[in-house]
Design goal:
It is built from twelve helices and five strands. The protein is an alpha+beta fold and about 300 residues long.
Length: about 300
Amino acid sequence: MGMKASDQLIKHYLDAARFMLFAGEVREMFPRIKSLDQRLYALHRFVRVLSDPDRGAAFIADRWVWSKDEVSDWETTPAHETQASEIAQVIKKFNDDNPGYRLKAGSDHRDLGDQIWGWTNNPGVRTNAPEYLTKVRVEIRRKVKDGTPRYPDLGDLLDPATGQHVFQIGHGGLDLVALSAAALLFWPAALLPTTIGLIEAERFQAVARFVEFLKKPFSGPVEKLLVAAPGLSAHGTGRAIDFRVHDSSGKILHGAGGAANWRSSGFAAKLKSAMSVALHFHGPLTSPDEPWHYFFDPES
């Protein structure tokens, strides 16, 4: 199988996986990443989240990026009033505890377009994604003991009767809501023929094998990415807040960057102490390491 043929097969399995696992805006985000390697790497990151017992589909649903209208709506809610009140309390405590310094808060909303741009231009993604594609090319060419492909051609992917992708959630009568199709990966194989609607078991199982491969850890040249998968940045909603430390003249001493300097100057600890009055904030963010970043959870 040549490179072009293997990449075309990867594209088919990538599409089948995104239609099988996701719906709505999540599913339609992947084609907006034009480069195959970066699109595939993003899918790997999403599948890793789905398979993480501490995150899973609920994490994606909760973290998924808001539209600008949704952010505007959020700003009219009682929860936003609570957030603003707690930020004011944090700022007062920090300023009272640290004469000569002033704390400020605020973060720009990063919509989906911003997050896709950040993903495709991130140096870590640019380094890791080609390596991951190389790894998947090896996997997609694998054969079973009798010499037949482990990942056969999926054939026609569109149902001529409906125009739907044959792996689409709900296709063939299976009534699943967005993101809940992750459960398909854990159904007993014996149930597949009766539960997958118009998708025959052989093709479903092949795509499931591909998703199982995507679930495996990948140690790329860049071990820790400093960017979230597109759509999952905490700054995609109105609940993530970055804090900044200014001196008395208004000059920024510490902003969104320089974690080591935050700690060596003692301001990471000073901010954490001030955050003690904010009952609904959690943090700081540890992966990536951002001592200035806290997250508001109105349900906590």
